[in-house]
Design a protein that fits this description.
This protein is α/β, with parallel strands linked by helices. The chain contains seven helices and eight strands. It has an eight-stranded mixed beta sheet with strand order 1-2-4-3-5-6-7-8, sandwiched between helices. Strand 5, helix 5 and strand 6 form a beta-alpha-beta unit. Helix 4 packs across helix 5. The two termini are 16 Å apart.
Length: 258
C-alpha cells in the first residue's frame, strides 16, 4: 500500500485525460436501474467486464462529480453508474454548506440521522452491484465521495458484497472501525481535512488483510470536497488536484482489476 502524502504528475494516464472544464456538460444519459428511477450512465450503454458505481456526496448530481464519472468511463473504457441516492428526499444545498445557523446545523445532523443515514443506503448500493454482476460483469468497483465514502466502506464490509474493490475520496465520518470487516481492496484518498490518525489506523488494519498488496493510500494536499461538488475548477491548484485524484483512481482501478 502506498503511503505517499502527495501525488506528483508522473502517471502517464494524467497526460491523456480529457480536458477538465469548469463549465462542464455531462456526456452520459439517465435511466432507471437497480431499483432507482434515475441513474446517470457514463460510458457504453451496456456494461462490459469492468463497471464502476459512484456514490456522490450530500449535494447530489453536480457537474464536477459527473465530469469525474465521464473521465473514469473514458479512460477505463467501462460503464460508470451514478444512482440518485436521494430519491424520496432532496440533496443538501451547496449554498447552505457549511450550515451557519444553529437551526441549519441541527437540520443537517437530523438528516444524517434519518434519511441520509449511510446504513440506509448500503442495501441500495449493493442492489446495483448485484444487478451488474447478474448481467455478466466480472469486476465491479464502488467509489464514493464524502458521505458517499461512508456508504461505500460499509458496503465493502458486507458478507455478500458484490464489489470486487472500493475507493473512498475525501471521506466523511472516517473511522478505522469500518475497516475491520472490510472484505475487498481499498483505494483510500483523504484530504487534509480528514483525521490522519484514522486513515493511518485503516492502513495498518488493511496491511494484515489477505489482499494487503492491492490496497492504495494517498493523502491529498487539498481540502474536503476538492474532487466532487465543492471543487472550484477555475482555481488552477484545485484543478490540478482534481486531475491527480482521477489519475490515481484510474491507476488503482486498472491495477486492482488486472
Amino acid at each position: 500500500m502506498s503511503t505517499a502524502t502527495k501525488v506528483h504528475n508522473t502517471n502517464t494516464a494524467c497526460c491523456t485525460l480529457p480536458p477538465v472544464r469548469s463549465d462542464y456538460e455531462e456526456k452520459g444519459f439517465y435511466k432507471a436501474y437497480g431499483g432507482f428511477d434515475k441513474v446517470y450512465v457514463a460510458g457504453p450503454k451496456e456494461p462490459s467486464k469492468l463497471a464502476l458505481v459512484c456514490v456522490f456526496d450530500i449535494f447530489g448530481f453536480k457537474p464536477q462529480t459527473l465530469q469525474g464519472a465521464d473521465i473514469l468511463a473514458e479512460e477505463l473504457k467501462a460503464q460508470v453508474l451514478m444512482p440518485d441516492f436521494f430519491e424520496g428526499d432532496e440533496p443538501w444545498s451547496l449554498e447552505n454548506f457549511p450550515p451557519k445557523t444553529d437551526e441549519d446545523k441541527q437540520k443537517l445532523q437530523d438528516w444524517f440521522a434519518g434519511f441520509a443515514n449511510p446504513a440506509n443506503h448500503v442495501p441500495k448500493l449493493a442492489k446495483v452491484g448485484k444487478e451488474l454482476k447478474s448481467e455478466g460483469v466480472d469486476f465491479v468497483l464502488a467509489y464514493g465521495y464524502c458521505w458517499g465514502g461512508k456508504v461505500v466502506m460499509k458496503s465493502g464490509s458486507e458478507a455478500d458484497t458484490p464489489f470486487s474493490a472500493i475507493s473512498i475520496v475525501h471521506p466523511a465520518m472516517l473511522s478505522s472501525d469500518d475497516a475491520v470487516e472490510l472484505r475487498v481492496p481499498l483505494g483510500l484518498y483523504p484530504s487534509n481535512d480528514e483525521p490522519k490518525n484514522e486513515a493511518e489506523k485503516i492502513v495498518d488494519i488493511l496491511s494484515k488483510k489477505p489482499f494487503a498488496s492491492k490496497n492504495d493510500y494517498v493523502q491529498f494536499d487539498s481540502f474536503h470536497g476538492f474532487a466532487a461538488a465543492r471543487a472550484n475548477l477555475d482555481d488552477p491548484e484545485n484543478k490540478a488536484k482534481y486531475e491527480e485524484l482521477y489519475c490515481t483512481l484510474i491507476k488503482f482501478t486498472k491495477d486492482v482489476s488486472s
